[in-house]
Amino acid sequence: MATGVIDVRTRELRELVDRPYRFIDRKWDLMFWVTAAFVVGAAANITMLLFAGDWDFWTDWKDRQWWMTITPFATIIIPSALQYIQWRAWRFPTGATYTAVCLFFCTWVGRLVQWKWFINMPINFVWSATWIPAGILMDFVLMQTRSFILTSLIGAGVWTMGYWVANYIMLAPFLQPVQFMGHTLTVADVQGITYIRAQTPEYLRVIERGSLRTFLQETQYVSLAFGTTLAVVGYWIGQFIGRYLSVWPILRYLKQV
Amino acid sequence: MTRAVVSILGAMAAAAALAFLTATSASAHGEKAQEGFVRMEAVSWWDVRFSQTSLKQGDQMTITGTAKILETWPSNMSGGNPSVCYFTVVEPGARFVLVDRSINGAETPQSFFCHKSGVYNFSETLRARDPGNWHVHPAIAVEQSGTLIGPGQWINVDSTPSGFSYPLNLLNGGTIDLESYGTWLILGFSALTLVLGMWWMLYWTVPKRTVTRLAVSNQLPLNQDGGEGVGLITRKDHRHMAIITGVTVLLLAAGFGYQALAYPGKMPLQTDWLTPPDLPAVSTFARAVATDATYDPGSHVMTIKSDVTNMGKTPVTLAAFRTAYLAFVNPQAGVEESGDYIHQLQLSPSEDIQPGQTSTVTLTIPGTVLEQEEMLPIGKAQLQVAGVLELRDANGTRNFSTVETALNPTRT
Fold it and tell me: Do A186 and B256 lie within an 8 Å CB cutoff?
C-alpha cells in the first residue's frame, strides 16, 4: 500500500516535471538566467572587492599566507547563497558554477575596461583569478551529498583547493626570481614596483613578511587549512543570505498572496 | 517602446560624447583635496629636477630631488610618527614604468623606514611607455597617512614604430618581455575553465526547464531530489556531471604538473624594506624660528615673521621659503630653480644677517598662489603655516630650518 502511494506521488511529480506550460515557456527561463547574471556577478564581485579586492587585482599580492586565507572566505559567500537558492527552487546543482561564470565575465570586463583600456596596466599584472573549477567541484559535492552541511565541510575544502590550484598555475611564471635594483625579487614584485600605482604603495600589501611562527616552514599549506576553515564560515554566511534574506521573504510573500 | 529605447541610447551616446569632448588632460592629481595645513606641515620638497621633458617611447628620464619629513608632521597622521615610507611617482595611469630608484644613494626597490626630520635625496628613473603629454610628480607615500606629492612637470612622449617592450632578465638566464610575459597562459587557462563552466551551466539550463521545476522542488524535502522516478536529477545527469568534474580535476592536475615543470625555482613574494643611509652631516650655521604669520584676504598677501640667527662666520642670506611642493624664493639670493612651483617673496629687511646677529625678518608671500593651491588653512581645523626656510652662507652652503607658527587672518 505504502509503495503504491509513493509510486502515485512519484508519478504525479514526474508529470509535473514534464508538464507543458502554456504561458510559462522557455522565455521565462532565459529571462531569469540572463537578468540574474548581472545581479549575481555584481554581488559576487562586490563581496570579493570588499574583503579581498587587492589580492585579486595584482600579482604582487598573491602571496603564500594571506591570499589563500582571505580570498576563499570572501568568494564562497555568494556561491553558497546561490547554491541554496538554485537547489531549493529547482534542484539545480549549479549555484557555485553559475556564480563563478558570472563573476568571470564581470571581473574580466572590469579588468579590460578599467585597468587595460583606461590606464593601460598590462593584463598580466591585473588578470582576474578564475573560480570556475572550484565552483564545479563544490556543485558536484552538493549534487552527490544533497546535504548543505556536508557541502559546507567538504565543499569549502574543495573550493579552497580548487581555487588555489587553478590560480597557482597562472601565477607560477610570476614567482620566478629576477635581479632588480640590486635585489633578488620575483617577477610579480617587479611588476608591482615598475607599473606605478600611486595610491597603492608597496607597504600596503598584506602579504607574508615572515615571523617566528613559521609553521614548520609550510606557510602555504597551513594557509590553505586556515582558508578552508574560514571558507566553512563563509559558506554559512552565504547560506544565511540565501535562506533568510532571499528565499524566506519570497515564500512569505507568496503565502500572503 | 522602440522610440523610448532609441531615445535612451541616444541620450547615453550624447552624454558619453560630451564627456569625451569636454575632458582635458589630467594636470592635477588630487593634491588640492588634501588640506593645506597637512601638506605644509608634513613634507617639504626642494631641488626637484626632471632630466628630460620630451622623450620617445622606451627612452629614460630621471627625477631627482630632496624631500624632508618635517619636524612639524601632523600629530593626527601616522600617530604623529611616520615610520614606513615609499617613494613613488604620480602619473595618469601606467604611462611610464619605474626602472630604478635610490634613496640617499641606496637602491630602494620597495618601502623604506623613515622618520620625522628625515631628509631623503631621491632619484627615480622612469622609462616612457605610452605616447602622450603626461603630468608627472615625484611623491612620497607614508604608511597610515597617504601620498604627498612633490612638484610636477609635463612630459611629452612621442611614439615609436616598434612600440614599447620591457625586456627583463630572469635569474635562470632567460629573458622575458614583462609587458606580455605569462599572458597567454592566463588567457588560455582561464578560457579552458570558462568552457567547463559553460558546459556545466548549459547542460542544466538548455535541455531542462528552470522556472517550472519549482512546483516539484517545493514538494520535496531539501535534501532529496526525488531520484530517477521524479526525474529532477537523473542517472544521466550524474554521469554527465561526473565527466565534467573529472575533466576539471584532470585540467587542474595537468596544469599543476605543467607549472611545476615549466617554472622551477619559484620563490615567495619579497618584502625588502630597508633603512636608507644618513646623508653627510652639514654644520649648522644658522637657524630660524617663525614667530607670527598673518593673512589679509583683501590684498591676498601672507606675511611670516621669523627670527633668523647667524651662528656662522660669514653673512647668511634667507634664500627661500619652501612649503609642501611650492617654493617662494628671494630674487636677490640667486636661487637657480625654475618651474610652475617657483614663486618670489619679498624680505624686510632685505639685507644679509651678519655673523652673531639675530634679525627679525618679515617674509611677504603672494597669497594668490596659496589660494590657487588651496594651501591656506582659513576655515580649516588648524590655522597654522609651516615649511622650511632655506638659509645660505657666503660659501653657498645651505641650512634648512623647519618653521611653524599660527596663522592669524585679518578676517575669516
Answer: no
The pTM of the full predicted model, rounded to 2 decimals, is 0.89
**8 Å CB contact of B216 and A13:** yes
Shortest Cα–Cα distance, A81 to chain B (Å): 14
Neighbours of B272 (CB within 10 A): 17
* Closest of A186, A54, A116 to residue B94, by C-alpha: A116
- The shortest C-alpha distance from A184 to chain B (Å) reads 8
**B contact test, residue of A121, A124, A147 with most B CBs within 10 A:** A124
Most confident of A16-20, B23-27, B47-51: B47-51
Choose the closest CB to A33 out of B176, B210, B231.
B210
- Local confidence band at A122 (pLDDT 50, 70, 90 cut-offs): very high
- Give the DSSP per-residue string, B126-183: EEE-S-EEEEEEEEEEETTTEEEE---EEEEEE--TT----EEEBTTS-EEETTTTTH
Q: Which three cell numbers stand for residue A104?
A: 568571470
Ordered DSSP codes for B21-62: HH-------SGGGS-HHHHHHHEEEEEEEES-SEEETT-EEE
| pLDDT tens-place string over residues A20-58 | 887 777 888 999 999 999 999 999 999 999 999 899 999
The whole-angstrom distance between A194's CA and the closest CA on chain B is 4
pLDDT in tens, B164-189: 999 999 999 999 999 999 999 999 99
Query: What pLDDT is attached to residue A205?
Result: 94
Cell of A196: 606605478
The answer to whether B224 touches A145, Cβ cutoff 8 Å, is no
What would the grid cell of residue B31 be?
593634491
Sign, CA torsion B207/B212/B215/B217 = positive
Cβ–Cβ below 8 Å for A189 and B110: yes
Using one digit for the tens of pLDDT, what is the confidence trace for B218-253? 899 999 888 888 889 999 999 999 999 999 999 999
Contact status of A215 with chain B (Cβ, < 8 Å): no
Taking the CA of residue A100 and the nearest CA in chain B, the distance in Å comes to: 8
For residue B384, give the H/E element and its range.
Answer: strand B384-392
Are the C-beta atoms of residues A219 and A65 closer than 8 Å to each other? yes
Do A97 and B200 lie within an 8 Å CB cutoff? yes
B207 by Cβ neighbours in 10 Å (0-12 / 13-18 / 19+) ranks as exposed
List all residues of chain B from 4 to 63 with a beta carbon under 8 Å from chain A: 29
- CB-closest option in B181, B211, B273 to A29: B211
Report the pLDDT value the prediction gives residue A209, as an integer from 0 to 100: 85
Could you tell me the end-to-end alpha-carbon distance of chain A, in angstroms, rounded to an integer? 36
- By Cβ distance, the residue of B94, B204, B205 closest to A121 is B94
A169 touches chain B (CB under 8 A): yes
Residue given cell 624632508 in the structure block: B68
Q: Given an 8 Å threshold on Cβ–Cβ distance, is B189 in contact with A130?
A: yes
